[in-house]
Amino acid sequence: MTTKVLITGMSGLIGGAVQRRLAGRYQLTALNRREVADVPTVQADISDLAAIRPAFVGQDVVVHLAAVLGERAGWHAINRVNIDGTYNVLEAARAAGVKRVVFASSGTVVAGWEQDEPYASLVSGAYDRVQAPWPLLTHQTPVRPRGLYGASKAAGEALARAFADESEMSVICLRIGRVVQEDRPIHSRDYSIWCSQSDVAQMVERCISAPPSVHFDIFYAVSENRWGYRDIAHARQVLGYAPEGRAEDYRTT
Q1: Which of 55, 127, 128, 237 has CA 20 to 30 A from 188's CA?
Q2: Residue 135 confidence (pLDDT) above 80
Q3: Three-state secondary structure call for residue 252
């Protein structure tokens, strides 16, 4: 039987990459504020729990990508969508008997560490100041969010942990790196945290298909970047992640 997967925020950049990878392999439904081409779409806002509940009925897995990005929208919108909305998605999934939720968290939950060395030099491109090997941030490193957006994603991870602990539903958090429309590093910081569209879609699929024994976990979704500081060994070991992208392949100097 084909696994039924509900994806929130499918009309976004990452949602499109995930849709392309999963199409034909899973039975997809979108939960989106606007229609998604070629996919059955339930049009609703995740901040409205009653409105989104019907979309979860009969689904096996939910991939929660919908979010307010960055700081410009202000705290009210960030809180409404990224925190209240994430609670609503988790609660609707739990109530509907969904087996697993894949939560799109963000590397910004640990980006505050970039104020300290050696991470400050890595993200600024001052590689001559860094001596290898440098300590990688792992899924067990204490969170240090950057900005209100990062704080909202850290709150989402805390909600994910609580729902996993208090129900039979598996919840996996993906700390996604820098995914851009150009699908290549743009700024010096990107050479540490870039994730190709193909690699983030691969990570989502590997989370969907992870064994039931993965009840709760946190993984970094970044490509295999020479100057990276976020650990992907855990994703390799548990999920079989095999990144194809490398940020340094795009360096011209």
Answers
A1: 237
A2: yes
A3: coil
